[in-house]
Known about the structure:
InterPro entries: NepR. By secondary structure, the chain is mainly α. It has a domain at 27-67. It is 82% helix and 0% strand. It has helices spanning 2-18, 25-40, 45-66. The radius of gyration is 26 Å and the shape is elongated. The N and C termini lie far apart (85 Å). 0% of the residues are buried.
Amino acid sequence: MKYQTEKKRDSGAQRAASDPLGPNSEIGRKLRQYYDDLISEEIPDRFSQLLSELEGEEQTQSATKED
Length: 67
């Protein structure tokens, strides 16, 4: 029985040594997955259109300031 407890302790230490986040590694993995899912989503057409309009406005304003 004592051997099994020591064996579990050793495997936990090995896991912690290989994983820099230690016990927080699961939280880190889930956050990374959530972030990756957000990044991979496409921008809705309406947002793309608004961004294009804003860029056009910025270019127009910078051109009028230069004159």
